[in-house]
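Entry for the shared binder. Reason: the reviewer on the internal report wants the predicted structure included alongside the sequence.
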Amino acid sequence: MGKVLFLLLLSICLIGLASTDKPNRPPFQMRVVDERTGAGVGNLRIVSDNGIACYTRANGDVTWGESSLMDRDVRFDIKDATKQFDAATTTIRVRHGGHAELKLRRRN
């Protein structure tokens, strides 16, 4: 019993060490704004080309930290459920610590 417990604790410690080997990289930050006013647009659904979906915060910000998106050109589809803004598709080079600002056209 003591040997099994020791091996279990050793495994947990090794897993903990393995997860700290990777540097904590900052996410990619995106901000979506109204092209007329420059104000951030909240509650937009943004879907990456590999199906990861996020929603913008009230100020238009959204962050992406998924490693599958990093260091490549990613296509994003942007949709507004309230239909106040036109849907849009854009391709952006995504990198850790990178930033992009997208401007959406208001429909009315």
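Summary line for the report: The first strand starts at residue 28 and ends at 34.
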